[in-house]
């Protein structure tokens, strides 16, 4: 597909024609504006001749792994959970024909708000009086997602319903072992933690949709500190909802946290709820038993260590450019994540 229009990966004329024939309410041709924060997926805002706006999203260019950048998964999830009360963009249309523009893509509504990546973003976007709303809104949103019965909204086949934590532990432990040679680093504590966590996996309740990467970086906030939309559903699956809660908590830094890896975290800006307040908010919304929360926190920290170890290995093997990359800092993040996992697992001994 040609990209002479300045929108690589998109044939604007073909996309215009497809939307005209498949999505109501628009008058192409569109003007295109690249949106930041879409990660490697190619995400643009579209504005038609009447000023009506939308968002289009497709996978990146190049050869992809079979399950990577799954646009149909994203489209299916937002189509299902939006009407159930979860704040997401409205799904307008999905194109599965790569002849249109070289890959499958989907079109959704443009939602106001801004993702928070750092405390500088917070200072620019959120007034101090709005920050107290952020934690309750995020937890309310997560509770709404975890109240959705996937079978009732057509997502019963999104993934396996049972054994989520066991599968995750197996996947990320394999990743750690596969990366040892490339990273030139192993840590016996990872193997000990793997054995401990496998022996302590809590009984999973009813499977729910698990976002898998829930946080400020993948959500939009209004100026009032409330979530306007949760984004990036491409790795969503069915599983244990408490894994989502623990993942979110692990990314929530208190202002007095001194560890270097959270120095830029949005919640370091001040005015937010404390991390220790989040479980009570979630329990009040869902009624779930959180007595095993330490397990989930340790699991997520170990998972983070394995992910970072894999990334570090690819850099060390020369599979990724190291331009602008502080490899020493990345290595320290691997070790620190193992430290945190060990600390959080101490109550499980």
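^ Assign residues to that structure.
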């Amino acid at each position: 597909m040609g990209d002479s229009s300045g929108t690589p990966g998109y044939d604007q004329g073909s996309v215009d024609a497809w939307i005209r024939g498949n999505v109501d309410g628009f008058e192409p041709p569109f003007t295109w504006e690249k949106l930041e924060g879409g990660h490697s997926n190619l995400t643009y805002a579209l504005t038609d001749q009447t000023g009506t706006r939308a968002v289009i999203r497709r996978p990146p260019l190049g050869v992809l792994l079979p399950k990577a950048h799954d646009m149909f998964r994203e489209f299916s999830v937002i189509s299902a959970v939006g009407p159930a009360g979860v704040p997401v963009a409205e799904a307008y249309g999905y194109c599965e024909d790569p002849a249109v523009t070289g890959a499958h893509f989907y079109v959704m509504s443009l939602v106001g708000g801004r993702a928070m990546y750092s405390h500088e973003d917070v200072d620019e976007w959120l007034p101090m009086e709005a920050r107290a709303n952020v934690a309750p809104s995020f937890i309310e949103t997560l509770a709404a997602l975890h109240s959705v019965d996937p079978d009732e909204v057509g997502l019963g086949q999104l993934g396996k319903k049972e054994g989520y934590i066991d599968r995750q532990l197996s996947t990320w432990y394999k990743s750690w072992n596969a990366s040892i040679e490339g990273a030139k680093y192993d840590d016996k504590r990872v193997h000990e933690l793997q054995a401990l966590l496998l022996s302590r996996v809590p009984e999973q309740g009813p499977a729910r949709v698990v976002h898998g990467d829930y946080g400020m970086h993948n959500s939009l906030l209004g100026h009032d500190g409330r979530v306007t939309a949760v984004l990036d559903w491409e790795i969503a699956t069915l599983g244990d909802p408490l894994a989502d809660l623990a993942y979110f908590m692990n990314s929530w830094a208190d202002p007095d946290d001194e560890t270097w890896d959270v120095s830029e975290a949005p919640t370091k800006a001040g005015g937010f709820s404390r991390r220790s307040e989040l479980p009570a908010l979630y329990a009040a919304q869902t009624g779930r038993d959180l007595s095993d929360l330490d397990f989930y926190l340790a699991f997520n920290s170990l998972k983070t260590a394995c992910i970072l170890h894999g990334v570090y290995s690819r850099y060390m093997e020369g599979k990724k450019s190291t331009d602008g990359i502080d490899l020493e800092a990345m290595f320290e993040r691997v070790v620190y994540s193992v430290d945190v996992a060990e600390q959080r697992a101490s109550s499980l001994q």
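The mean pLDDT is 92.
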